[in-house]
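User: Please go through the entry that follows and flag anything odd:
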Amino acid sequence: MASSIEYDKVGKLGFGYMRLPRKGDEFDYEQINKMADAFLASGGTYFDAAYVYGGAEEAFRETVVKRHPRESFTIATKLPVGMINESRTAEDLFNTSLERLGVDYIDYYLLHGINSGGSKQAEENGAWDYITSLKEQGKVRHIGFSFHGPVNDLDEVLTKHPETEFVMLQLNYYDWERDGVHARELYEIAKRHNKPIVAMEPLLGGKLASEDSPIAELMKAKNPNASLASWGMRFIAPLENILTVTSGMSNIAQVEDNIKIYANMQPITDDEMAVIDEGVKALRAVPCIDCTSCEYCKECPAKIRIWLLISLFNDHLRHKTTTNLNGSYGWMTGGFGKAKDCTKCGICEKACPQNLPIIETIAKVSAICD
């Protein structure tokens, strides 16, 4: 089934509302307003949120919906399939998103985190039928799903559900040929099914734009005037069937850099690709847990801030030292759970889109810090 999405009406840069700036525990609305305004002024239209991105839908209402005409933007948000049960229906979740967003229809509505198992769950709890009915009613303009899973699962889901109009995939040069992710193969499957692709994590949660990364020196030597982020964006955005590339921008400087990149978008050259290949090898030689700090694991019953402890453990792996480790551990766990409080319930690992060995890693943090 062909998608009715018109590529030319969606800017290639999308604004992800997952990693918004904060002042303390609250959103920095003054800065977010400037970020959203600059993005829209550049011709961007596509904003990405989700029911489970804490406060993202409400932040979008305050910074965009209340301040800009409805026809100037499109909003994508996601239905958390695993949260549907007898006491909380898909309709309840959808209506909550509408209320939070302050809109009366959603442009792009996704089933969140689908693979073959999740697709089966969505069929059993009626999520597939429900989002299709929303489109028929005009409450949703386009339906799709975000995907984290094996290659064969994506082909299976797209074959079984041709009504899917677009798919959201994690695509970046680090994951392109990485075992366990196989981003290139996932991209090719979606392309073969002729589905528009929303690319997420083009910079792997900022990892590919870090000045401390071993790839940074290589890229700066090749082109000292190009931002590190530009390499990741230029690798993904020019590919066929890419509808938009969502960037989880965290400050106005990142927005301005991305706008500059997309205003003069040029595909990666062969010489630059050689630099990326060398850099990826260097990155993979550095021991680390490939966490993107997406915070999907934040519903930990023991109130452990898992993503922070994984970051701490990565520092330990890189620097081979425990210097200052306990001091950082103290503030990361202040008022929250400690690594030793982990009950191995597995909720975090089921929620993790990267399929990380969280329980094992937290146990290692506990052995070092508790």
Notes: The two ends are 55 Å apart (CA to CA). The first strand starts at residue 13 and ends at 16.
